[in-house]
Amino acid sequence: MTSLDKPITPDPSGEPTADQKAVTQAALFDAFGGVRGTVETMLPGLLFVMIYTVNKDVKMSAIAAGAVAVLLVIVRLLRKDTVKHAFSGVFGVGVGVAFALFTGTAKGFYLPGMIYGAGLGVAFTLSALVGFPLLGVILGPVFKENLSWRTRNPGRKKAYTKASLAWGLIFLAKYAILFPLYWWGDATQLGWVLIALKLPPMVLAVYFTWVFLAKAPPPIDVIAEWEAEEAAEKARKTQAKHAK
């Protein structure tokens, strides 16, 4: 995979270069967990649905889902891999397990994640409409540009705005399907539809993000700028000291 530390050289024609596309892809992979992170996110929910479909035992299904989520974190810790995606996953599953055990219903397992996802959809959409796209806040540190895109890189701000709007509309469309099922469908049906809609909307949203950012101007590496300023300041002090 392409390193995120590799500098991006813009094409004079303004078209996205192969390096720019590759670095954008690498950053999105890092930010959203890649294939492994996606599998780890889906596995506990899939296990819950499978067990509940077979025996309708909410408690057993919830405990099994929680146990596999914790196991995934332990495996990452033992392998000394990054655990940020696994920890976020186990937190979400833990809340779902708590709701399922408290309410005694399988739908309780799904409700926290559905509320969170719908809330994200609203947040992404509103952030794009007010000109402070949430995706730029999330991905800015990954690209080492932080919030420089807001005032210094209007092309990237426009790309982040489009991408955030895409995420928002995709999420809202997804939960416009799921909430009616939550209210009027049965728990097993809801669970399988949730699993079916777990990956395709995410892939579509990430694809739109890649398309918009790959065509945007390269990020401004503010970390490198800060390091250069510190080095220049240190050199000035050294020169002043020797001058005395």
Automatic annotation (TrEMBL):
Q: Which UniProt keywords apply?
A: Membrane, Transmembrane, Transmembrane helix
InterPro entries tied to this protein: UCP010219
- What Pfam families is this protein classified in? DUF3159
Ranges that cross the membrane: 60-78, 90-110, 116-143, 164-184, 190-213
Q: Could you name the domain of life of the organism this protein comes from?
A: Bacteria
Q: What is this protein called?
A: DUF3159 domain-containing protein
User: Species name for this entry?
Assistant: Streptomyces flavotricini
